[in-house]
Amino acid sequence: MKRSLPIAAFFSMALFITGCVERRFVVTTDPPGALVMRNNAPIGFAPADDHIVYYGNYHLTFVKDGYETLQVDQKIPAPWYEYPPFDFFAENLLPWHIIDVRRFHYQMQPRAVPRADEMLNRAQELRDRGRIVSPPPETPLPAIPALGAPIDSSAGPNSSPGNPAPPPGTIPSTIYPPG
């Protein structure tokens, strides 16, 4: 009985003092203030931070007026303590918190302003190409029979030399069996 008391106290204390790993990443841009999107979901304006849900690749997009939109596939590798069997101890048994913060910095390029004469030349090229393209030829639509007119079933799916078309006004037996 006396030996089981310290063991029980140790395990009950271990339940209340468990490890925890906090995973975050911080993104800064030059110039600051760009909208940061992680996997096409906005997370805020740079400098921005967010939780690392999983280690691996994240698609980051940066948008700012006057600058080219920057798209980056950022790889975040797992640290050594997140591989089995170490991950079990880091997540559950260590009596302190592990904080994993990754920092990334990206340089954005100013948007190039096109020259007016280049835009006019390109517009003229597009106009010239548009004049060359002709509309597709019109194909006549099949004639729709008038309401109440008999339908020519001689070319139907059941007509063949061994299976002639049924006379008008009768129901083919393949659709409704006699009964």
Which helices and strands, and how do they pair?
Blueprint: H1 4-16, E1 20-30, E2 35-38, E3 41-45, E4 48-51, E5 56-63, E6 70-76, H2 86-93, E7 97-107, H3 116-132
Parallel strand pairs: 1-7
Antiparallel strand pairs: 1-4, 2-3, 2-5, 5-6
Question: What is the count of helical runs?
Answer: 3
Proportion of strand residues: 25-35%
Poorly predicted runs: none
CATH architecture of the domain at 8-107, by name, is Sandwich
Which structural class do the helices and strands define? alpha+beta
Largest sheet, if any? 4 strands, antiparallel
| SSE pattern, N- to C-terminal | HEEEEEEHEH
In CATH, the topology of the domain at 8-107 is named: Immunoglobulin-like
What is the residue-averaged pLDDT?
80
| Gap from first CA to last CA | 86 Å
Strand order in the sheet with the most strands: 3-2-5-6
Morphology call: flat
CATH class of the domain at 8-107: Mainly Beta
Number of separate strands? 7
- Helical coverage, percent range: 10-25%
What would you report as the Rg, rounded to the nearest angstrom? 36 Å
Describe what this molecule looks like in 3D:
This protein has 179 residues and is α+β, with helices and mostly antiparallel strands. It has a domain of 100 residues: Immunoglobulin-like, CATH 2.60.40. Helix content is 21%, strand content 28%. It has a four-stranded antiparallel β-sheet, with no helix packed on it. Strands 4-1-7 form a three-stranded mixed β-sheet. Strand 2 and strand 3 form a beta hairpin. The chain is flat. The mean pLDDT is 80.
